[in-house]
Amino acid sequence: MPEASTRQRPARKRLLNAAAELFYAHGVVGTGIDTITEHAGVARKSLYNNFSSKDELVLAYIQARHEEWLELYRARSRSAATAAERVLAIFDAYSDHANAAYIHGFRGCGLLNAAAELPAGSLGRDEVRKHKEEVEAILLRELSPLTDSEAAATLAEQLSFILEGAMSRAGLEGSSRRLTHARTMAATLVNAL
After folding, report:
1. Is residue 6's pLDDT more than 60?
2. What whole-number distance in Å separates Cα of residue 53 and Cα of residue 60?
3. How far is 57 from 15, CA to CA, in rounded Å?
4. Quick one: residue 41, left, alpha or beta (phi over 0 = left, psi -120 to 50 = alpha)?
5. 3-state secondary structure the chain
């Protein structure tokens, strides 16, 4: 039994890596199971040994993207000395995402791109919503020491809107320039507290 589980882990990882690359480049709907298995170098049966359906693979992709972003944020946050710097670290993590090497170029937030293709009420869309809520909760947590709770909640929501708008425009333009501008706006708002 341990041998089978050891064999599955590399196949699972290859499938997730292939799905991440292909879903980001071509979309969730535009990427079929056969393309994913071929890109991963595994048999179709391996996919179904690791994921019960394409929906489950999409959900795993979204969860992995969320963890990737959290790690980008944690890395940026570790070097931040103040709450204000930790707020800006959130914007820096999004810029790091935008400046990563993508085979077919930067296309914006992979989570929002996936959510746009998924039906309302799907687990994948719910998972994307949870990610966006967590980003706003991180903003709130970092803003809380700087002002009262009502002002912190209002500014956290405003900054999340600025961030999402900048990310959307950055994806359309294929450049992190809008995220740099959003960071400057955020710094102005945070420094005014």
Report:
1. no
2. 11
3. 8
4. left
5. CHHHHHHHHHHHHHHHHHHHHHHHHHCCCCCCHHHHHHHHCCCHHHHHHHCCCHHHHHHHHHHHHHHHHHHHHHHHHHCCCCHHHHHHHHHHHHHHHHCCCCCCCCCCCHHHHHHHHCCCCCHHHHHHHHHHHHHHHHHHHHHHHHCCHHHHHHHHHHHHHHHHHHHHHHHHHCCCHHHHHHHHHHHHHHHCC
Distance separating alpha carbons of residues 70 and 135, to the nearest angstrom: 9
Q: Provide the pLDDT for residue 102.
A: 84
Per-residue pLDDT band for 105 (boundaries 50, 70, 90) equals confident
Asked whether the whole model's pTM tops 0.70, one would answer: yes
Compute the distance between CA of residue 33 and CA of residue 15 in angstroms, rounded to an integer.
10
What average pLDDT does the segment 163-188 reach? 96
Mean pLDDT of 157-182: 96
Measured between alpha carbons, how far is residue 171 from residues 38, 144, 177 in Å?
A: 28, 30, 10
Is the pLDDT score of 4 beyond 90?
no
Report residue 4 as tokens: 């089978």
